[in-house]
Amino acid sequence: MEKRFFTIGMAGHIDHGKTSLTKALTNVDTDRLKEEKERQISIELGFAPLYEDNEIQISVIDVPGHERFIRQMIAGVAGIDLVVLVVAADEGVMPQTREHLDILGFLGIKNGIVAISKMDRVEEEFIELVKDDIMEELQGTVFENAPFMLVDSLSKKGIDELKEMIISTLKEQEMRDARGAFRLPIDQVFTVKGQGTVVRGTVYEGAVEEGQALMIMPKGIEVRARQLQVHHKPAQKAYAGQRAAINLSGVTKEDLERGDVLVSSEHFIVSKTLDVAIRVVEDLDHMVKQRMPIKLHIGTAEVMGRIVFFDRNELKEESGEILCQLRLEEEVLTKRGDRFILRRPSPQETIGGGWVIDPRGNKYRFGNETIEELEKKKAGKPKERIAAALYEAKSLGFNELIKRTALDSETLAGELEDESFLLYNGKEYTLLQLVDSIEEDMYDRLQDYHQQYPMKQGLNKAELLQSMNKSFPRALLDFVVENAIGKGDFKRNGQFVSHAGFAPHVPKNWQKRAENLADELKKDGLQVKYLADYFSVAGIPDALAGDLERFLEETGQVVPLDGQYYYHGEIFDKAVQTLKENTGSEFEVGAAKDALGLSRKYMIPFLERLDAKGLTKRVDNKRVWQK
Fold this sequence. Notes:
This is Selenocysteine-specific elongation factor. It comes from Neobacillus piezotolerans. Keywords: Cytoplasm, Elongation factor, GTP-binding, Nucleotide-binding, Protein biosynthesis. GO terms for molecular function: GTP binding; GTPase activity; RNA binding; translation elongation factor activity. InterPro entries: Beta-barrel_SelB, EF-Tu_GTPase, EFTu-like_2, Elong_fac_SelB-wing-hlx_typ-2, P-loop_NTPase, SelB_WHD4, Small_GTP-bd, T_Tr_GTP-bd_dom. This protein has 19 helices and 35 strands. It has 627 residues and is α+β, with helices and mostly antiparallel strands. The protein has five domains: 4-171, 3-Layer(aba) Sandwich (Rossmann fold); 183-263, Elongation Factor Tu (Ef-tu), domain 3, CATH 2.40.30; 278-378, Elongation Factor Tu (Ef-tu), domain 3 (Beta Barrel), CATH 2.40.30.10; 380-505, Arc Repressor Mutant, subunit A (Orthogonal Bundle), CATH 1.10.10; 508-625, Arc Repressor Mutant, subunit A (Orthogonal Bundle), CATH 1.10.10. Strands 7, 8, 9, 11, 12, 13, 15 and 16 form an eight-stranded antiparallel beta sheet that branches. Helix 14 crosses helix 15. The model is unreliable at 30-44 and 65-69 (pLDDT under 50).
């Protein structure tokens, strides 16, 4: 069985014992900052390993509870698979707990366990009463059906039972997608003496390995993963669901910040305009108005922007989803389905949260027509959802499409029979429109190359693919080239690709000089000068000489003896024929000199060229004709 990786979060009100409970479960004190020790509150996210066997690995995030540290709290829970909601038996559900519950709901956290902490502070006969009060407060939240555990971190009562429940719950749960492109929202950046820049975060999806080339988005900084650690232990690879620290080369600590995202592919979308579906909290203190400033928390990023409605100008109470748009001051990396939280910058409060319908939002008119379009986007008919997934990823396998579209295999298989989708390599799907678009782009690149280098056979295939592989998967690019060759739109000459109708040629304004050069070379027969002298006499500049030399050689108009002397193609062929007629099946250098009347400075390079062409083979001091 493939090993699975999960991260759980401890959430709840300040002083309800989250950090103590984490320590009791893991034997790790996650309060690591001096201020945290002094004030006995969690300011930054704390991490610890909880459990590992051959089947599963579980990490814990201790999320700050104080309302001033809500940003860190959101950054923490955004990447977790299960939440332990810690409620102190002697205080019950507090205002901060309710805000955490709202945030957990908006972020789509479905799995939870309620841990009633500090149970030794409450008389035994009151425990059930406390439990009933908490259950009543949790009605209508993601925790209304969550199991309850009674624990005390100091006496260790219930700790083993809680740990067993966490493990058994996660063993029944699917892990995050480890097969897609790697994505890690960064929540910590620091330096290690002698090592350089290190980033830490929870792997949202995909996997990363030591030495892998990566990209910091949305900044677009290319980096490399020098070393990986999972819970302070070196690792060759880190998977979706794991907490990972990655030592990066190619970047300094000052270049990075919490909210940046480390990815393995440029296929993720960077955008400032998001079409979204949101829900608002039940007890908003202030009206949400059209184009009001908002603070968006997505992944570990915190970005200012404005909310734009298309069917209202203000909002106070609403139980259902509202379709609207977020226009941000800075770019964020996101994709359809990503969850987020919206907060009011001043006075500070959580407004609501939701999910991204389309990270490539456009400008729309106010009115029902726009809402209807957003509804279609939100619902996403099967074909549209497949097309959207392929448009984003460019190329996906069948199983990956099931995950990205949330379609069952039978429905997906039926939709993929549509002619707008194309199966290539026997396992990957893409859009026919995308293939046509890539081929058109390649055609234009080849056209530019042919105009710039008309004497070359074409563009090296590897260079053509390299110029586009930041935008498209290499396998897809390779398919498009081979498909175009198969259709007769492109042609191949060795490793070079060109338009089907293209033939290398001397530019029109240099044709006469090139002809004069060839004539002079032919006129000199076997007693030629340096080729550079012919270029000079013909008035051909150095910038053109290299391409012209290669063109004349590839078209057989000249034959190199060495790097300096060249024979005209016809002269070379006649010399070969003369030598054959005046020698037997084998010959020595002296016989060749007699037959052609050449001095040693021409004779030796000439014979070596015969060997290189496979016309002769040197055996001791003789040459044997091969053809």
